[in-house]
Each structure stands twice: as C-alpha cells, then as structure tokens.
Recover the amino acids of this structure.
C-alpha cells in the first residue's frame, strides 16, 4: 500500500510502498477514507535527532477516518464496512485518567510504550492503518469523512481547551483566538456555538482573517506589534476572559498575557518556540489569571463533536490532496498557504 512516511531527520516526508498490515488480537484494520495534516507534524519533523522520540520510519497522520476492513481476534461490537473516525491520544484504558475518557493524559502510556498513530505508532496517511482498540473508534454514520476527520484533532483540541472556560464566558465577555489555521477556524465556531462571548480572531495573514470572519468571528485583527492595544480597544479595561493561543511563539505568548483580564484563562495550545507565557508575581499580569497548556482532548469530547457535526453546526474548511500529493500538502502547511485543514484522500 502507499503511505507518507517521515524517514530521515530533517528531510521531507516521502511517498513509499509498504505492506498492508494485518490486525492482531484486539486490533482493527481500517481502509483509510481521509487523513488530516496537522501543524504538529511539522513540529515533530523540525526536531533535532536528540529530541526526536517517535521512531523512524514514521507513517504520518494522527487525524484518521476509515471504513472497518478487518477485525482481529476477539474484537466484538463492530461491523465490517462501518465508517469511523479515530480517537488519537491512545492510553491504557485502565488508569484513572483513561477511566474519565482522558486517554490524552494516560498515566501509563509512556511506561507501556503506547503512542498515538502518526506520533509513534503507524499513522493514517496511508491506504490502511491499524487501530489498537475498538474503544478508539467513533462511528460517523453518513457524515463525509473528508470534512469530519479534522474533528479528531483540529476540532477536539480546541473543544477541550474551550470547554474548560465555558463557565466564565458570560454575555459581554471576550474570547480571543490567536492563529486561524486548522484548529483556529474550528475554535471560532465552537466559541460561537457554545458561548455568548464576543469572539476576536488574530492572524498574521489577511486571508486567514477573512476565513475567521466567514466562520463567525465578530472582530478580526492583524497579529502584530499593535495587536494588544487593538484588542484592549475592543475589550476596554476588562480585557479578554479567554485567550486561546494556537501559535505559541514568544510574541503571541506576550500578547496573550497583555490582553488577559482579571480572572481570565490564558490557554496555550500552539507548539511554537516561545519560552514562557508569564512571569508570575503580585505586580505582574492581571489578578487571578490562569495559564494552562492542554494537550488534545477526551474520548467523550470527540463523541460530542460528532454530535455537533450531525446537527450541522460546524463548517470544516478543507483542502483535499490525493495520497500521491501528500508531500505537497506538507509543503503547503510549512508555507502557511493552506485554508483550513489539508486532508489527504487515498
Ligand atoms: P496551522 O498551520 O493550520 O495554523 C496556524 C495559523 O497560525 C496560521 O493561520 C498562521 O498564519 C497563524 N500564525 C502564525 N504565526 C502567527 C502569529 N505570530 N500570530 C497569529 N497567527 C499566526 O496550524 P494548526 O494545525 O491549526 O496548529 C496550530 C498549533 O497548535 C500548532 O503549533 C500545532 O502544533 C499545535 N497543536 C497543539 C495541539 C495540542 O494538543 N496542544 C494539538 C494540535 C495542534
Ligand atoms: Zn495535531
Ligand atoms: Zn491510562
């Protein structure tokens, strides 16, 4: 089968031919119908050898959708042909965090060598992939896999990040989204659907601001040296109640702290090379600001997102690429010229 693999530190990923895997006991073989390309893949491929822990060669893709093609021994409750998406942050299924659905924070994943597909285990940018447990599959019915697959990360990560702050987002409050790419354009829609907050979106590219407006941002601003002042002009003295930094470079971390209001949440999701968001101390920053760094999301949250998708409340903007053009999708991601999510369709 064809697959896109990262094979050599510092090199581009490659289109390769590898054997179709066979499901072992408890595993499920999916015939891939769609696979999303995430900026975290670019981050992984930017790591120097001494920090790279994902194994080589690595079949990329941690956003996967497919049809169930074969069941390993002992798998019950799933039917061949069912259309599913894959919950990616695999855990042990047994520890306290996993019991809450938060396999993203599994206590034992490292010890048991459990890694997400595309981030250690073979990923979804291929014709077939193995899934380690029926638990990781969410049926999507008649939803289009191409526009649904980004829910597994570009949807799940901002949903988890935003859900934590919903109680604070009262009428008159402001939520700020920094970075309107794959995650950001979904974050704006989730904020609009789930809260009464005013949504302000920032990006460095004008076309991304146009996308932000088209998916519901009330205000859009260029992310530049004047951005903090501009956001403050909109929020007044209260500042922002939620700042979602989907970039994570030092200028956006500084911007996040500069616009955070009293009692706000500064939630850093981007894996940029920024060093620190806050110097904490009495005379630094707004009172009672919470700064946190969430990772991916919980299993129940992915099921909730699929429910929102069935109700048609999310518009996922995608650019489609054939598997043969998968390397080009990564070039476009690096160049910052994608609109929404790049999705590879084998
Ligand atoms: P993307 O490439 O689709 O979008 C990034 C957007 O940020 C682009 O629109 C770009 O123009 C914009 N941008 C770049 N520099 C900016 C700046 N200084 N100010 C404002 N906007 C700027 O990326 P994505 O796939 O949506 O991922 C976003 C970030 O989130 C990445 O860093 C990715 O690694 C990270 N991520 C984290 C998690 C997690 O669990 N914490 C999960 C998924 C992705
Ligand atoms: Zn990702
Ligand atoms: Zn666990």
């Amino acid at each position: 089968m064809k697959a896109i693999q990262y094979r050599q530190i510092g090199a581009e990923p490659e289109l390769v031919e590898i054997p179709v895997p066979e499901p072992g006991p408890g595993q499920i073989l999916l015939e891939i119908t769609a696979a999303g390309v995430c900026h975290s893949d670019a981050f992984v491929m930017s790591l120097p050898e001494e920090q790279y822990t994902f194994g080589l060669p690595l079949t990329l893709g941690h956003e996967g959708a497919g049809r169930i093609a074969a069941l390993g021994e002992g798998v019950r409750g799933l039917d061949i042909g069912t259309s599913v998406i894959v919950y990616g942050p695999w855990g042990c299924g047994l520890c306290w965090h996993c019991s809450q659905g938060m396999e993203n924070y599994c206590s034992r994943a490292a010890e048991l060598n459990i890694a997400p597909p595309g981030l250690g285990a073979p990923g979804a940018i291929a014709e077939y992939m193995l899934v380690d447990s029926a638990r990781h599959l969410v049926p999507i019915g008649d939803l289009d896999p191409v526009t649904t697959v980004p829910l597994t990360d570009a949807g799940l990560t901002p949903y988890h990040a935003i859900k934590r702050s919903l109680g604070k987002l009262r009428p008159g409050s402001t939520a700020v989204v920094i970075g309107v790419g794959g995650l950001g354009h979904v974050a704006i829609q989730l904020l609009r659907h789930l809260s009464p907050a005013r949504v302000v979106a920032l990006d460095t590219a004008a076309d991304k601001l146009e996308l932000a407006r088209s998916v519901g941002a009330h205000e859009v601003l260029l992310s530049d040296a004047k951005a903090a002042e501009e956001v403050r002009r909109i929020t007044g003295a209260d500042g922002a109640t939620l700042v979602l930094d989907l970039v994570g470079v030092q200028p956006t971390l500084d911007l996040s702290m500069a616009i955070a209001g009293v009692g706000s949440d500064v939630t850093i999701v981007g894996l940029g090379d920024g060093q620190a968001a806050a110097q904490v101390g009495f005379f630094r920053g707004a009172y009672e600001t919470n700064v946190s760094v969430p990772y991916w999301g919980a299993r129940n949250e992915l099921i909730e997102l699929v429910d929102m998708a069935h109700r048609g409340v999310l518009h996922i903007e995608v650019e489609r690429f054939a598997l043969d053009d998968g390397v080009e999708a990564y070039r476009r991601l690096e160049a910052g010229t994608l609109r929404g999510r790049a999705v590879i369709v084998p």
